[in-house]
Design a protein that fits this description.
The chain is an alpha/beta fold and 259 residues long. The protein has one domain: Rossmann fold, CATH 3.40.50. Helices cover 27% and strands 17% of the residues. The strands form two sheets. It has a six-stranded parallel β-sheet. Helix 2 links the parallel strand 2 and strand 3. Helix 1 crosses helix 2 and helix 2 runs parallel beside helix 3. The longest helix is centred in the first third of the chain and has 23 residues. The two termini are 28 Å apart. It binds the ligand O=C1O[C@H](COP(=O)(O)O)[C@@H](O)[C@H](O)[C@H]1O. The site of ligand LXAUTJHC has 15 residues, from helix 2, strand 4 and strand 5.
Length: 259
């Protein structure tokens, strides 16, 4: 597991989205060159969708071989297929409908109008992840190249909310979430162990309303009280912030000391 999280602070949220999109393109291209494919976990929320829109607008998007990209989701709002509030619907609108992804490699979480209730739907997604894990991944989910997470103002990541049962899960890779404090109340989420299987975890936080959450999560809070504190990658944990979201960080974390 990685050491301390690394921080990159951009001037504003537009620049953060563009820089993060450029970073993601490079990461995908590098992974595809090294092993033939890349696997990425997408996040919902404003910052995640901002990144996808910036990627869609980037001329460098053509450097990605979209047919050799596995896409997964970190969480989903358990709503009918096509609902405008589903993370999958929003990712399609922001990016996926305008690039030649291979539909067989795109893995949205189940919708509420499918054959499963939420806990069974979570089990189905866990089985899909397990089937995609390779022996060298040594786990029940693939070793994702990059797993992105938006950080909520309450420090939630994916659909893991402070003090909720889902954030305490230590065995399963995917769980149904009931009674989430942010609508809709019923959701599906990767758990912290599944998140920590990723090579790199990128936490996205832009805007003043994320400043308190970033400060708490980066100042030694426990993961049950501040789920973002428990989101770490195997080889790297990267916080991508804008100046507003970094504005309450303790001075020992930001700005960096002058050499
Ligand atoms: O509901 C959700 O919220 C978080 C954070 O969203 P934001 O709009 O505050 O950035 C998001 O990461 C998660 O995927 C989503 O389901």
């Amino acid at each position: 597991m990685t050491g301390a999280p690394q921080l990159v602070v951009h001037r504003d949220k537009e620049l953060m989205a563009r820089a993060a999109a450029a970073r993601l393109i490079t990461k995908i291209v590098d992974a595809q060159s090294a092993k033939g494919y890349a696997s990425v976990v997408l996040t919902g929320g404003r910052n995640g969708n901002g990144l996808l829109a910036a990627l869609a607008a980037s001329p460098a998007r053509d450097a990605v071989d979209w047919s050799r990209l596995d896409l997964w989701w970190g969480d989903e709002r358990f709503l009918p297929d096509g609902d405008a509030e589903r993370n999958y619907t929003q990712a399609r609108a922001a990016l996926l409908d305008s690039v030649p992804v291979n539909p067989a490699r795109v893995h949205p979480m189940p919708a509420s109008d499918g054959p499963y209730e939420v806990d069974a739907a979570a089990e189905v997604y866990a089985a899909e992840l397990a089937a995609a894990a390779r022996p060298e991944d040594h786990g029940q989910v693939p070793a994702f190249d990059v797993l992105m997470l938006g950080v909520g103002p309450d420090t939630h990541v994916a659909s893991l909310f402070p003090e909720h049962p889902a954030v305490r899960e230590t065995e399963r890779s995917v769980v149904g979430v009931h009674g989430a404090p942010k609508p809709p109340p019923t959701r599906i989420s990767l758990t912290l162990p599944a998140i920590r299987a990723a090579r790199e975890v990128w936490l996205l936080a832009a805007g003043e309303d994320k400043a308190g959450a970033a400060a708490i999560a980066l100042s030694g809070a426990g993961e049950v009280q501040a789920p973002a504190a428990g989101a770490r990658g195997r080889s790297r944990t990267l916080w991508l912030l804008d100046a507003a979201a970094a504005s309450q960080l303790p001075p020992e974390l930001y700005p960096p000391a002058v050499a």
